[in-house]
Amino acid sequence: MDVQVGDKIFTKKPHPCGAQTFDVLRVGMDFRIRCTGCGREVMLPRAKIERNIKKVLRQQP
To answer: What angle do CA 1, 17, 22 make, to 5 degrees?
Structure first.
């Protein structure tokens, strides 16, 4: 899956605050994402993120 820094992702399961959208801050073996609802940053392994992504919105240059 091709996800880049600056993209916005929609997940299958919502964050505990209720938001389902996250901003991608870092990619690699681990992803750092920021919840758009509460602003919390989470670092998760690539395999877990790729299973839970429903949709990716690209950032327009």
So the answer is: 25
Number of H helices, E strands in the chain: 1, 5
Q: Nearest-CA neighbor of 10 among 59, 53, 42?
A: 53
Model-level pTM? 0.87
pLDDT of residue 1: 76
Using alpha carbons, select from 4, 56, 10 the residue that is nearest to residue 32: 4
The order of strands in the sheet holding 21-26 is 41-45, 30-35, 21-26, 8-11, 53-57
Using DSSP, state whether 17 is helix, strand or coil.
coil
- d(Cα 44, Cα 29) in Å, to the nearest integer? 9
